[in-house]
Amino acid sequence: MSIWLREVLSRRPRWMNGLLVFCGFMACFYVPWDLFVKPLARDQEVWFGVTFTGWEAKAAALAHWAVYAAGAYGFLRMRSWMWPWAALYAAEVAFSMFVWSALHLGGWRGWLVAPLACAPFAALALLLWHSRDHFGRRRRPLRARYGDWALVTGASAGLGAEFARAIAAEGLSCVLTARREDRLRELAAELEKSHQVGTRVVAVDLAAPDGADRLAEAVSDLPIALLVNNAGFGSAGRFEKLDLERLRAMVQVNCMAPVVLTRRLLPAMRERGKGAILITGSVAGRQPLPLHGVYAATKAFDQFLGESLWGELRGSGIDVLVLEPGPTATEFFAAAGETRVAGEPPRGVVELALDSLGHQPSVVSGWLNYLRANLARVFPRSLTALVAERVVRENTPAAMR
Question: Known catalytic residue: 295?
């Protein structure tokens, strides 16, 4: 627990840690008590110096809860949107304290106390206003943090291609690997022209038992600083209707390939004292997923592998992240035999992953996906399995149900 606390508290100044704790207390304890326990007749809330009572106070308390919940999350993750909103809210509190003190106490006494009541909050507002760099701090370029070369698996399309573009834009040369060599060469030409980086194309099928080893051998002469284990696929349908060889290949690509590549490339990163490993998981790995059971199991494997390596490699200079996207606008659904569903743009998912690398062990893309990913922690697993089955069934062809 002490190690975890030091990790969390080291991300911001001490006074911000105090605000983080305060917002968490208000969101988790005080405001819920105010909403559900405090008698209606005694309830009062103040916004912009206006005092609300009764049911109006309860409604105003909901707004306060939203602010403190957002503040707790914003300080915890040091989100850029906290500036200027945290400072503006502190200024609103300062204004409210001034007006409320002047009107509530009245006369010369109220005007004497009002500046004293608002002063601490006004000072806090100024402090937050001048803390933009803490929230909007630009991350160091990947090349400066890790080195010169990245290896991206599954780079021929979707998230893999977007990872390659984003990484090349930060000056890293890229090894691009997948089965479709023609697409890889088109992407390599694009990266070389747009970003003046080096590339190497390695066409390999990671579903082959020796595929990952052959890939590792093909890059053994390069100082791979960033490994993006992105290759993966799914297959929707009832377990007994799915092709056995495809299931075997899925386990090989989604599980064995990241294990082999990470094990083969990690020692050199250790020697250099820096590097990064990114594994593309899925929110599917957070819950049982009928009609997609093997895929969900492989992504649970990826999540635990990555998060375990994050804990193991802390302090070594090697960052590890598991990216857990939900539905994304890629070729995944067609390859999995599902009907098309709406998804997030790949570029935003990749940007989130690169922004989160070095700050946390895993990240879920999108609020709705985050809530869905954590339902299993709240509800019985039998319930989450049945709900998931209904959702997946709607997107699975009738012949495979």
Answer: yes
Model-level pTM? 0.82
Q: Where are the beta strands (DSSP E) in 169-263?
A: 173-178, 199-203, 224-229
Burial track 213-239 (b if 16+ CB lie within 10 A, e otherwise)? eebbebbeebebbbbbbbbbbbbbbee
Residue 152 CA neighbour count, 13 Å, CB half: 28
For the residues of 75-123, what is the DSSP string, one character each?
A: HHHT-TTHHHHHHHHHHHHHHHHHHHHHHHH-HHHHHHHHHHHHHHHHH
User: Phi and psi (nearest 5°) for 75?
Assistant: -70, -35
Cis-peptide into 84, omega within 30 deg: yes
Nearest to 368 by CA among 346, 387, 343, 392: 343
CA angle 6, 11, 13 (to 5 degrees): 100
pLDDT tens for the chain, residues 1 to 401:
677 777 777 878 999 999 999 999 999 999 999 999 999 888 889 898 888 999 999 999 999 999 999 999 999 888 888 999 999 999 999 999 999 888 877 787 888 889 999 999 999 999 999 998 888 666 789 999 999 999 999 999 999 999 999 999 999 999 999 999 999 999 999 999 999 999 999 999 999 999 999 999 999 999 999 999 999 999 989 999 999 999 999 999 999 999 999 999 999 999 999 999 999 999 999 988 999 999 999 999 999 999 999 999 999 999 999 999 988 877 676 665 666 566 788 999 999 999 999 989 999 998 888 887 787 778 888 888 888 888 888 888 888 88
Which tokens go with 298?
């492989």
Q: Give the single-character DSSP code of 170.
A: T
Are 253 and 233 spatial neighbours (Cβ–Cβ below 8 Å)?
yes
Per the residue annotation, which of 89, 146, 295, 370 is the catalytic one?
295
Enumerate the H helices of 252-398 as residue ranges. 257-272, 293-313, 332-336, 346-356, 367-373, 375-378, 381-394
Identify residue 396 by its one-letter amino acid code: T
User: Which of 256, 209, 248 lies closest to 229, judged by CA?
Assistant: 256
